[in-house]
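queue> holo job accepted (magnesium ion)
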Amino acid sequence: MIGPLSLAVVLFLPSGSLLRAPGPHELCRLALILLTLLAALGLGAQLRRERDTRRKTEQRLLEFLATAGHELRTPLTAISGYIQLARMGGLADPEKFDLAMSRMADETRRMLALLDELALLTGIDLGQPLRREPVNLARLCRDAVADARACSPHHPIQLTILPGNHSITGDRDRLYQAVANLLANVRHHTPKGTLTAVGLGTEDGYRVIEVVDDGPGIPAELRGSAFERFVHGRQATAARVTDHDAGGGNGLGLSVVAAIVTAHGGRVTIESAYRGAWFRIRLPA
Ligand SMILES: Nc1ncnc2c1ncn2[C@@H]1O[C@H](COP(=O)(O)OP(=O)(O)O)[C@@H](O)[C@H]1O
Ligand SMILES: [Mg+2]
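queue> job finished
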């Protein structure tokens, strides 16, 4: 195959000796060759960059599939264990039967929640459009806080809505999910009695929603990666067994928040707090 360099030599040599001073015609040819060379080198670098990006994307996708499969395996293993037990007559006692049923219901709920989150993340990755409707963020925050209070009366929540316009255009259900995930995390990852403050206001043309709690805070080792998929702290495994509302313990909650907020053109950050966790969502007004 003729590479860019040999192409230059072939094009340049036939017009005579290299020792002779080049005429204007040859200079033009030389300039053309150099331009061809530069373009070929630039194209090569771009192709290499594209290939690297494609490889990284494929690698991420494979890791995502492997982890998702593993996460689904855990509840399925538990359910098939209870089925085995029932077949062997181990659930004849009504109390054991009820316990097995409620554990199977929990695991089924967990799988459905995981599948919902995976569907949402892949939908956003594939660029599926979100709904674009008028959303009243004040009402959304009120609903999310009321629902969270109903889920855990042991986690008091204080809501502050600053005066002003709180409407944006977006996908109401997804935005609700983002706020609900942050509030669910307080229930799952902080002790009873932890106080949460939810605030809504406007800053520099952005609607800002803050969820701040006075619990133990995001573990230091997770601070840089908390919004990545399947990243969770050690206690999350305990939440997996004990919580009864959806979406706990698989490490997708914060990545779902980030995906939803980013798809709305906004940004979610973890702010430095003296204690507890402080999340800040900024959405273009
Ligand atoms: N309010 C919070 N307080 C303390 N730790 C938190 C809080 N929110 C999130 N975390 C930490 O961030 C991790 C990732 O959260 P998330 O993505 O929602 O996954 P999951 O809740 O399924 O574990 C959690 O496992 C937990 O360690
Ligand atoms: Mg969570």
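queue> The domain at 1-128 is CATH 1.10.287.130 (Helix Hairpins).
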